[in-house]
Amino acid sequence: MKSKGSRTERELVQMLKDTGSWAAIRVAGSGLTSDPNTDVLAGNGKRHLAIECKSIKGKYKHIYQEQIKQLIEFSNKFGAEPWIAIRFNVKGWYFLKPEHLTKTKSSNLSINLKLAEEKGLKFNEFIKL
Predict the structure, then answer these.
(1) Which of 13, 42, 81, 105 is surrounded by the fewest CB atoms within 10 Å?
(2) What does the mean pLDDT of the chain come to?
(3) Which candidate in 6, 21, 30, 34 is catalytic?
(4) For residues 7-24, b (16+ Cβ closer than 10 Å) or e, as one string?
(5) 28-32 CB contacts, 8 Å cutoff, 24+ apart
(6) What φ, ψ does residue 54 adopt, rounded to 5°?
């Protein structure tokens, strides 16, 4: 499972680099410490992004609220925009702001395909903001 996450992060980093106007790096070991961090850092000279990456086969993904809290805390300290990037194997990448996530009964957060399609941005829209 860990290798799938790393592969997804590397894929997004390469997509950003391939635009020719974005620089991006994968933060190795993100999620392994209690310090706030992120999976991917990216910038284009005008915008700075802190991105939490997710990839799923199905139509929804649950995320621990603590992960998003750490993403926001890191972003605030770093001066970056916090984003969640999720790749649905059947539909591709969507990019959402933390406030777009839905709270579950267990106080975790959730993203489903319908929400991603309604509130999220596709890659080409995301990089042009």
Answers:
(1) 105
(2) 90
(3) 30
(4) ebbebbbebbeeeeebeb
(5) 31/67
(6) -140, 150
